[in-house]
UniProtKB/TrEMBL annotation:
Protein name: Ribonuclease P/MRP protein subunit POP5
Biological process annotations from GO: maturation of 5.8S rRNA; tRNA 5'-leader removal
Keyword Flavoprotein among UniProt keywords: no
Source organism superkingdom: Eukaryota
Lineage, uppermost ranks: Eukaryota, Fungi, Dikarya, Ascomycota, Pezizomycotina
Gene3D superfamilies: Ribonuclease P, Pop5 subunit
E.C. number(s) listed in UniProt: 3.1.26.5
Enzyme superclass (EC): hydrolase
GO MF annotation, one: ribonuclease P RNA binding
Catalysed reactions listed for this entry: Endonucleolytic cleavage of RNA, removing 5'-extranucleotides from tRNA precursor
Keywords of the record: Hydrolase, Nucleus, tRNA processing
Length: 204
């Protein structure tokens, strides 16, 4: 029995076009960060995203590209995870074709768009689309690694938006100890080099 090997692409959908950003009352770096990473419309379903990828591969590489994905039915493309709230997706594809899928995602520039009233946003080309950028964050051999990377990046984005540095699991505890030692040293006015060498600082 032959084991079919796949690749999992962790994809982030970004919205750099400021005209499509949701209206925010505060204009600052945090609101800009949130706007670029704004939620995707529920009109983008896993089936629709898989169809968009297959069509883009077919347009770029023709029958050869479609064959690499698994033939006319192109069953090799599966959307294992799609979150409109975080604009994140995990796409499974055959190992031999992951570069084709990656390049197709690079050239995809629109997703379906729905405004607050539930109606599509008309574009000059007549479609109801929202300009976007598909960014491949990680290519992994297992879905578990892709999920771990998605969680790690989500945590980092939350920390970045809040403007707080992440210090790890024991960051608060160690941070308090380091702060007490720093206060004691500043009170003495003298820095002992031996204590400085033995201090552990988590820079992760």
């Amino acid at each position: 029995m032959v084991r079919l090997k796949n690749r999992y692409l962790l994809v982030d959908i970004l919205y750099p076009d400021s005209s499509t950003w949701p209206s925010t009352k505060t204009a600052g770096p945090q609101s800009t960060q949130l706007s670029i990473h704004s939620p995707t419309s529920d009109a983008l379903t896993p089936g629709l995203l898989a169809k968009m990828v297959r069509e883009e591969v077919g347009e770029m590489y023709g029958d050869w590209g479609v064959g690499k994905l698994g033939g006319a039915s192109a069953t090799g493309i599966h959307i294992k995870y799609l979150s409109p709230a975080t604009s994140t997706a995990i796409i499974r594809c055959p190992r031999a074709a992951f570069r084709l899928v990656w390049s197709a995602l690079t050239y995809m520039t629109h997703v379906p768009a729905v405004d607050g009233a539930g109606a599509g946003i008309r574009r000059p080309n007549g479609g109801r689309e929202r300009p976007c950028v598909f960014r491949v964050l990680r290519v992994s051999g297992t879905m578990r690694r892709a999920e771990e990377e998605a969680i790690r990046r989500a945590r980092r984005e939350i920390v970045r938006v809040r403007g707080v540095e992440e210090e790890g699991v024991l960051g608060d505890l160690l941070g308090g100890v380091v702060q007490k030692e720093a206060n004691a040293v500043s009170a003495k006015g003298v820095v002992d080099e031996s204590e400085d060498e033995g201090m552990l600082v988590d820079e992760d």
